[in-house]
Every structure is written in C-alpha cells, then in structure tokens.
Amino acid sequence: MKKVWAIIKREYIVRVRTRAFVISTIASPLLLLALALLPGLLAARGGGERHVTVLDQSGDPQLFDLIKNRLEPHDAGSDEAGDNQPQLTRYVLERRIVQADEDIQKVINNDYTAGGKADQDKAYLILPAGIFDGAKPEYRSKNTSDFGIRSLESAISQAVTARKLERAGLTGDKIKDFTRRVELDTKKLTAEGGAQDDGGMGFIIAFVMLFFMYMTVLFYGLFMMRGVIEEKQSRIVEIVVSSVKPFEMMMGKLIGIGLVALTQIGIWVTSVALLSTIGLSIFAARGVSLPHIPMSMLIFFVLFFVLGYFLFATLYAIVGATVGSEEEAQQAQFPVTILVVIPMMIFTTVMANPNGPLAVTLSMIPFFAPTLMMLRIAVINPPLWQVLLSMAIMVVTIVGAVWLAAKIYRVGILMYGKRPSLAELGRWLRYS
CATH 3.40.190: does it fit domain 47-183? Predict the structure, then answer.
C-alpha cells in the first residue's frame, strides 16, 4: 500500500505543479462561459442587415406594411412585440409592385445582373397574386441557410392572417386578440404531485452537466493513456516494475490522476459557489432568479464522474500499454472514444422519453451510465433503485476492467515494436 501511495503522490504533485494545470483550471471555465454567452451576445448585437426586394403581386398595399412592421424591433410592451425575438439578421424590405401578368424571372434577372455583374447579396421575396387563397410566397437568395428566414416566414404568415381577418370584417383590436401568441407555461411535477417552475432550466442543467462530464472524462482518460506511453518511451517503467507490481503502479496512476481531476473540479465548483453568492443579490435586485441545483444531484454527479473516470481511464490505460507511440494511439483509442461520444449522439433521444424502456436500458450500460443516468437524474429524478443499480453495474465493470487492464499492463508496458494483435492480447491474458 505504501508503494501505491508513493505513486499516487508522485502523479498528483507532478501534474498539479505544471503550468498546463494552472492554465486549464483558469481557461476552461472562461471558455465554457464564453460559449454560453456568445450566442446571446451575437443575437443581441445582430448579424448585420439583409436588403430584400419585395416583388408584390398581391394587389394589397397594406400587406407589405404589415410584414415590414413585424420585422422591425418593438418595445417589449407594444402590441407588435408578441412574436418579435432577437434576430441575428435584420431584414430591410423594399417594395416593388409587379403586375400579375408580368414575368417575375425577367424582373429578377434584369435587377440581379444590373451593371453586368451578379450581386451576391441580393435577395427577393415574391408575394404572389393568390397569396390570400393559398398561394405560397417565395424567397430567393444566394444564402438560404440563414436562420433569420424563419422570422421572415413568421412575419409573412402573421401579416396574411391579419389581412384575411380584416377582410372578414374584424376590427384591429379583435385581430390582435385572435392572433396573439399563446405561451406554454411549463412546470415540473414534484414527488408529492405538486408543480414547480422549471422554465427549461432542467434541460440547461442536464446539458451542462453532460457536456462537462463528457469533456473531463475524455480529457483525463487521455491523460492516463499518454502517461503510460511516455513511461514506455522513456524506459522509466523498466526500473519501476522491478520494485512495484504492475497492478499497484496502474492503480496508483489511476487514483493520482483522478485526484488531479477532482482537485480541478473542486476549484471550479468553489469559484462558482463564491461568484453565485456574491452575484445573488445583484440578480435578485433585477428580478432574475438563479437556478436551484439540489444537493443530491451534485452528489450523484461526483459519484458518476468518479466511476466514469475509473472506467474510461482504465480502458485508455489498456490502449497505452498496447501501443508504443502517440501515432499508434490515435488509431487504437478510437473504439474507446466512440464509447464516450455515443451518449452525446443519443442525448435528445433519451431526453425526449427519459422513463422509456430504451432510456432506462441505455442508462444501465456501464459505458453510457455516467452521462445518460446523470441526464435522467437532472430531468426526471428516476427511482433510487435504478440509480443504485446503475452504480453497482459500473462498479462490477470497473473491477473487471482493472483486472483485465492489470494483466495486459503487466506484459504490455515492456513490449516495444509493432502493436499486438487480438490473438497476442489473448495470450497475454492467459499468462499467470
């Protein structure tokens, strides 16, 4: 046990004292914060203007004004602001009346290539003559992948609906009342059957925890693999294994690097707690409530993180023991990395029905449990027996993986040259 402790101490101190640890501890939270705030900042500042020529065949002079009015920013309390959301692109409309029997294509061709060169920024919105009878408006532009087109589509739909109601004899106040958007107020059921405000925070917390666990497990698992490869390349391990059993050495590295990860997470959590305490009064004064994360969720997060780390770090250690260089590791680590990536790919499937048979089954698979079971805990708080069973399966799998890794590690750390085949790995496992 003393030898294991010495390895743990060495792995921990060497990594904590590096500049990379200090920089990543400071930079990682700032990067995550920037990723969270950047989309909202871009939406608030806007992504520029898009000038659109409206070719109006509708014969209704008020339709264009209604569309244009709904695309312009309004005060939050105004009647026109109901569906007006922050947009990355601001549309500036210019109307051009076109006769119903006129060839639209000729008009666009003459305008698009005016001056002898095509204008790549040109955009056209065609309001057909039968738009009030079901004819579809048409948008033509070089760039049709702009998400702001959805806001343009919404403005056209609202304007056409409003004009139809006006033609049916309804007044302006009744039209606003009939076309006002109905907002769905989402509340989360409690264990007693009551309801509490959620406002989508369950999804945000689940996604942040899932992404955070994915990044840290992947990062420190690769740390483990690189540590084994470096020791093989420097031949230090040949001296160490003469006095330390390979199993003891691997366990020391696993625990030492795991403590580095927990130290970094502890610094982040403490910093967030301090900042939340300081900023709580500021947010409360502005009427903004911070999300409440139950203590049980934080405890489960730490437990699943530790279990997930030990499982994947062991798998990466096996990869490191079977290869001789970073180049070989890039290919050999692919199956392990896929096991980390798959939960991110089926994230939405599990979230859509977290109590369904598929979600429950996937959350019991030990390689998926650290992320998918945490996702279910954050969204619906599944029965305790499912959480404990998932942990028990992970513990059994970790014990088996460590046993398997120790047998491969014992032979693999002293092997150089070509990468072993599956048959050779099988022979390594049969060695006493």
Answer: yes
